Amino acid sequence: MGIERYSISIHFARMLMNAGHRLQLDEAVLLKEAGLNQRMLENAHLRITPDQFSRLMRAVWRLADDEFLGMGSQRCPQGVFAIMAKQVIHSHNLHSVYYKLSHFYNVINDSLHLSLDIVGDEAFFSMALKDPAKDQDYLLRGFLLLLWHRFPSWLIGQRIPLKQVAFDHPAPKHLTEYRLMFPCPAKFDQAVTCLVFDAAILTAPLVQTPETLGHHLKRAPFDWFTRPAYYPVYTRRVLDHLERSEDLAETTIQSAALELHLTERTLRRKLAAEGSQFQRLKDGVRRDMAIHYLSQTSMSISLISQMLGFSEPSAFTRAFRQWTGELPKNYRDVARQKK
């Protein structure tokens, strides 16, 4: 289908709103800029688009003038990340990126300490907050660790293969979202918060330029939240099959098995071993596509229903309400308020 299908749990938006409340920001302004409302925040099952979440984070950054969202021991004024990025874009390789990135933040802000350590054939990029109690929802640690992986990956033009991510806090309630954020096992209650990867990739050269960086910064943080989700091999292949389909109504586990040169029974077994089910994957694709079409396009609900393989709009309406707790029309009306 050629569009980004990833959606984000409302849980993260609620944490951002909590941060805004602690910073005494105008909550009505935050919600309006993100195309959200209070009723949507109260729906624990709702998922929103990367655009909505990015708009919300950008609004908190601007109103608080703090890229650490009020969760650091010291404010990090808006624009600090861009200054750092304009320095590291001239690095020769990934090792230099992580060195310069660490040195920059260690010098200009006491809220955190960053370090790159190489032990044998593994690299550890670690982060320690000076006052972790201020990051009471663990949002800052999750966001920054995501950033320290995705921005350097963008700089070298390839995903840095992670062996593990570790966090110095307990497993959060939204644990399942971490499989969408990090392509590796996540461990909690560890001594240090860090990324772990093969040290060999530190020699990878940068492929981005000051010109491409300018475009990247204008879109930030949108691109950091729209990377494809990482899944086990057969789950990913089935998702690829579903996303390429021009007719989801006719896309079945039989068609997926045929494309993968497997029997239906074998594919079901492999998906089950990865903790997946075909229908659940198909519903996830339809849910994320529906969220995208309703919030980002002017297509009629009837056409969206047809494109996603529903026999009639009423069936789509029932499914969308089951997925999100919202009627499609109400969801679209709120999204349009931001435009």
From TrEMBL:
InterPro entries: AraC-type_N (IPR032687), Homeodomain-like_sf (IPR009057), HTH_AraC (IPR018060). The keyword Flavoprotein does not apply. It comes from the Bacteria. Residues 236-334 form the HTH araC/xylS-type domain. It holds the Pfam family Arabinose_bd. Keywords: DNA-binding, Transcription, Transcription regulation. This is Transcriptional regulator, AraC family. The lineage of its organism: Bacteria, Pseudomonadati, Pseudomonadota, Gammaproteobacteria, Pseudomonadales.
